[in-house]
Amino acid sequence: MPKKSEAKRRRIKEVALRVFAEKGFAKARISEIARQAGVADGTIYLYYKSKDDLLIRIFEEEMDGIIPQVRERVAKGRSAREKLSSFIDAHFEIVESRPDLATVLEIELRQSNTFVRNHLKQKFKEYLDIIAEIVLEGQQRGEIRPDISPSVAKQAVFGALDDISQNWLVLQPRKVKLSEFAPDVKKILLDGLCLHPAT
Amino acid sequence: MPKKSEAKRRRIKEVALRVFAEKGFAKARISEIARQAGVADGTIYLYYKSKDDLLIRIFEEEMDGIIPQVRERVAKGRSAREKLSSFIDAHFEIVESRPDLATVLEIELRQSNTFVRNHLKQKFKEYLDIIAEIVLEGQQRGEIRPDISPSVAKQAVFGALDDISQNWLVLQPRKVKLSEFAPDVKKILLDGLCLHPAT
Amino acid sequence: MPKKSEAKRRRIKEVALRVFAEKGFAKARISEIARQAGVADGTIYLYYKSKDDLLIRIFEEEMDGIIPQVRERVAKGRSAREKLSSFIDAHFEIVESRPDLATVLEIELRQSNTFVRNHLKQKFKEYLDIIAEIVLEGQQRGEIRPDISPSVAKQAVFGALDDISQNWLVLQPRKVKLSEFAPDVKKILLDGLCLHPAT
Amino acid sequence: MPKKSEAKRRRIKEVALRVFAEKGFAKARISEIARQAGVADGTIYLYYKSKDDLLIRIFEEEMDGIIPQVRERVAKGRSAREKLSSFIDAHFEIVESRPDLATVLEIELRQSNTFVRNHLKQKFKEYLDIIAEIVLEGQQRGEIRPDISPSVAKQAVFGALDDISQNWLVLQPRKVKLSEFAPDVKKILLDGLCLHPAT
DNA sequence: GATGAATGAGTTTTCATTCAT
DNA sequence: AATGAATGAAAACTCATTCAT
What we know:
Number of domains of chain A: 2
Order of helices and strands of chain A: HHHHHHHHH
CATH class of the largest domain in chain A: Mainly Alpha
Largest sheet of chain A: none
Number of helices of chain A: 9
CATH architecture of the largest domain in chain A: Orthogonal Bundle
Radius of gyration of chain A: 19 Å
Mean pLDDT of chain A: 88
Largest interface: A-B, 47 and 48 residues
Oligomer: homotetramer
CATH superfamily of the largest domain in chain A: Tetracycline Repressor, domain 2
Shape of chain A: elongated
Structural class of chain A: mainly alpha
């Protein structure tokens, strides 16, 4: 594919991401994306099969950039604790630096039609599995409690991060940085809420 | 007897909940709800102002039933740990016994139009605040780590429960009971993932 | 028919006239008329066959009251000029004293569906014919120009009165009395606009 | 070539005018207009914002063609009498040659919803003011009776013309030409009905 | 490659009227 | 006579997608 086209594809992608974030996928108009990208409506269909395809491919391309980044960062941690801590930091930083992306992913991931959702979830699993891998490895190395399912841990950790991120995203006047929540989240997930261990 | 038929109102509500869960709010058709409820399309509008109103009122009525129930159950716990444990059990039991309701609430809460979402969120906050109250009281009684924001704890706990519930709901062949995840979730949230406390 | 029913019929008629004038026939709701009349929706249909019938019969009953009144008043005039003058005064006075009625008649007479309009026009012709009769008789008595068709005269006179009445009705703050226009209208219709007769 | 097809816009306008005249604005169906114009329903909305907009713009465009034409014709008259005479002729000729247009204007001008009516009335005032101007100028030149309000004269003249035009339009088998009424109308409005001036 | 005019499927809601009580 | 709950037909408008140029 010629370079010229690649630039256009990128412009469409960037505009689409912004419009999806602003209006939500359902209310976003192809004609609005075309207008802002400076192309004709029909041109979008030369680069993307459909509106659904546009969302799916934006998501996949972004995740393909993010996942290795997060993996690399997590790899630097010397213990499971450090790795989980890095994951939490990385997640919050991504949400903070790419709010449009985060808004689209976190919100559209749950709605959209089944077709789109299934595509998104598939790619998303790769991201979530980073957590599961850390937990499993930590258990093997005796750093993580062995009596917890890595799958449940994965969901619990991501659910917590996601809920906090989402609430932060909808708070219009973001006076507070999302990363400020990281310490508390780490305490809860890594060390638990309770002071006295269960008997 | 109240104005119009209370039984008919209930039948419409039950059918609507089922159809909303199956199709999603946006794709649910008033005509389909009417057909399944055995009434004319127009009859729905004698009981509910609009499709939006139908969703909002189903949600509010259900939450008004659920919140006191959960509160009562939580109140029986003698410690913050027991109360949180009860909340987790209660949440999973509700999702398990009312999957339609849970599907509608958890999914529509994030999408729908702004008008509907705002209504839903407002009522939903009452539910989430049960967690925040437990945490705050637990901190005052020296049972919960004092260095954690109740608000962050609330979001982390609910996020974890919600993510697990949602994943369970979309797993079509529900071979496993949701409540089986409760022990692991409690371990994580109450005692943490790590074996060795942070230095 | 018992007296009790007659009172109810009249109440329905009066309320309907007011609601038709306020909202227009199309936007008027049977349920609103019923509510204001203090009866059930269905009760209206014991007295009137349909919404159309309600309009038609209000119109006919009112015209049956008005036509003899105007005829009587016109009869007192000793010349065609006096009779036409009386007709103009009478018309303006009716519009002024019964604005609801005038609004409904003048506006709905032109719209509504064909069925209704035909009914209304039929009864309305009786009213307009008062003018034609004055003109014809005036011509026979040498008071009115013989070279004018009574039918054209009838339409011209009524059209002029009607247009002025209608404009007055839509002027919300009726600071000026409609009857103040009578002298000018009489000058125009009875004596003409021009100072120098056609050559 | 202008954006989209001007020919298509015109075809839609012409068809719409015909359908509005036949069915009335309220009963006219967009789908019927589209079918007769040989376009898809949605295409109408590429050219006109809404059904209301379609009516308003047809009206305004037609009046923008008619008003200068009538003004020009009236300007040729050397006296107020001649000018009024020309106005009457012009009005009847327009109604006769464009019965669809006249039907839509005369009927919808009075009904429609407030939004539409206000738009129509505004443009219509320009037309009526031609009469007022003739009268005012005639009064200044001593050709028209000075003791008559130009506004009342305007309403009386237009009301007369309008009522006659409308009656002619609803007479289905138009055996008689509308312009045949012009001489009588001129006699009445210009010279008055009465033979003996008021004392 | 690019355009943008054209397509046409799809659904909530209102309200006059009915009829069982 | 009166009620009022129930009925169900009916129509404007949007917007993703296509395809002739």
